[in-house]
Design goal:
39% helix; four-stranded mixed sheet; globular; single chain
């Protein structure tokens, strides 16, 4: 009998997804990509949808391809946060899930706060205010499409929806449920009182389960269709950042992390929620983590700014690679102009370079003209935003963090990692690139007893990963840039 244990991670990002095979020999985890696919939203009329049926087809393709690798001990699914599907009393999906960048929640936060004050909402759930949080999506449905909500029997967040389609199990995993402002931060349970105050249905919520729970197996129907054996399903830390934080290769408990991708999720791992006037004022979030910890963090607009800019340049007839854009940025003048990466006008698809130029024009700065100048503006602004956020974390926690761990796809961007070290004055440890998939796999291995603890899992991930280190440079210049940046944001 082989000593190698194989598990399968389905990792869905906001623009692509993949099936990743993890092989564990007791010392190291080896990753192999089994299947990769696009995750393209679809605009129908005035609504932006996720194409869930296509995504489920791709899951089946991943399962089919995985047959060639031999027995699979378990599988787990992680996705982005807040979005959901509704199923009726007969278990049928009522419509495709709506994308968080859809416009239906614009203005909804103010409507909710007219019923339950903003401070009270934050006191209850400790979640950063973002117009697309699940709470606000539900309120938008209640006011704009009450008929649809009335027909719903269960609400399933995206990874739970995919698991439901695979297994028939209806449940909600806590780290995912925590992203949408629906949980009571003090208990980790559904905040039914808040939902009732907003006249939102509570009967559609599923039982909550912890990351690391065995949640059935792939249904007999799907096994027959694909010609596969039943595979046990482990409910991992289903929010992709929850899985990514599991993968942080830190030696101790105190560390700052950035899960870097379309979004930059920057924070610390805390044993308890941090909810007070200061965290409210700084708009930090308290999301669930593996082992009932708290992911105290801030959502920062990340490489979406680069991705959307590149899409615009392609629409205009160019075809720059990310490496091209990095070289052009390096050749551009430093600290020419800055933006707040979280400015609301940067959150939706469209002409990102044009919006960045407009923000610089309105703030009386140099207006970037070339691709390189746009990209340099984005990189420097992100790095300085990380510095501001790190300063806030240290102020709140009363601790200093000389090292900063960056995990996820953004670690492939060496220029941003170096800028982050320069701006924060911290050593940046970049890796693993496949942080979310490794965290997903690690939870499966812990759930089945192959790995004994989270600390052990992080040691194994560190031993399995090629980590890159970036030391701070040009501190005087970056500190001067920080002073200018603070006046802009």
């Amino acid at each position: 009998m082989s000593d190698i244990r194989q598990v399968l991670a389905f990792d869905f990002g906001a623009s692509s997804g993949r099936a990743m095979l993890g092989r564990f020999d007791g010392q190291r985890i080896e990753l192999e990509e089994v299947h990769r696919f696009n995750n393209d939203p679809v605009q129908v009329g005035d609504t932006l949808y996720w194409d869930i049926l296509r995504l489920f087809h791709e899951v089946k393709q991943g399962l089919t391809k995985a047959k060639a690798f031999g027995p699979i001990a378990s599988l787990g699914v992680d996705t982005w946060g807040v979005d959901f599907g509704l199923i009726d009393s007969e278990g049928r999906l009522l419509e495709n899930p709506v994308h968080y960048r859809d416009a239906r929640t614009y203005g909804v936060m103010d409507q909710v706060f007219s019923i339950v004050p903003k401070e009270e909402v934050y006191r209850r759930n400790g979640i950063q205010f973002m117009h697309f949080n699940t709470l606000f999506q539900l309120y938008a449905l209640q006011t704009k499409r009450p008929d649809l909500l009335a027909r719903a029997d269960r609400l399933l967040l995206m990874p739970d929806l995919i698991l439901y389609l695979l297994t028939g199990v209806r449940q909600s995993e806590r780290t995912m449920a925590s992203t949408g402002a629906l949980l009571d931060a003090s208990t980790g349970e559904w905040d039914l009182d808040l939902l009732r105050q907003l006249d939102l249905p509570t009967n559609i919520l599923c039982p909550l389960v912890d990351a690391g729970t065995l949640s059935g197996a792939i249904s007999a129907q799907i096994c027959d269709e694909l010609g596969i054996q039943p595979i046990p399903v482990i409910t991992v830390a289903e929010h992709d950042t929850g899985s990514a934080v599991v993968s942080v290769p830190a030696a101790g408990e105190d560390f700052v992390y950035i899960s870097s991708g379309t979004w930059s999720l920057m924070g610390i791992e805390s044993q308890t929620p941090l909810i007070n006037e200061k965290t409210f004022g700084y708009n930090f979030t308290n999301e669930g983590g593996y082992g009932r910890t708290t992911r105290f963090l801030k959502n920062i607009m990340g490489l979406w700014l680069i991705q959307e800019s590149r899409r615009q340049w392609i629409r205009e007839g160019g075809n720059p690679s990310y490496a091209d854009l990095e070289r052009e940025a390096l050749a551009s003048r430093p600290f020419a102009c800055f933006i707040d990466p979280d400015d609301p006008i940067l959150g939706s698809p469209g002409d990102m370079p044009g919006r960045i130029r407009e923000l610089c024009r309105k703030s009386g700065q140099y207006v970037p003209a070339t691709r390189g100048e746009i990209v340099r503006c984005i990189y420097e602004s992100l790095a300085l935003k990380y510095r501001v956020t790190k300063d806030q974390i240290e102020e709140i926690s009363g601790k200093s963090y000389p090292k900063l761990h960056v995990v996820g796809g953004g670690t492939k961007d060496g220029l941003l990692s170096q800028f982050t070290a320069n701006a924060t004055g911290s050593e940046v440890i970049a890796g693993p690139i496949e942080g979310t998939a490794l965290g997903n796999i690690a939870v499966q291995l812990m759930a089945t007893g192959a790995i004994g603890s989270l600390a052990e899992a992080r040691q194994i991930i560190a031993a399995s990963t090629d980590l890159k280190h970036y030391l701070p440079q040009d501190q005087d210049a970056w500190n001067a840039a920080l002073a200018r940046y603070r006046k802009i944001i």
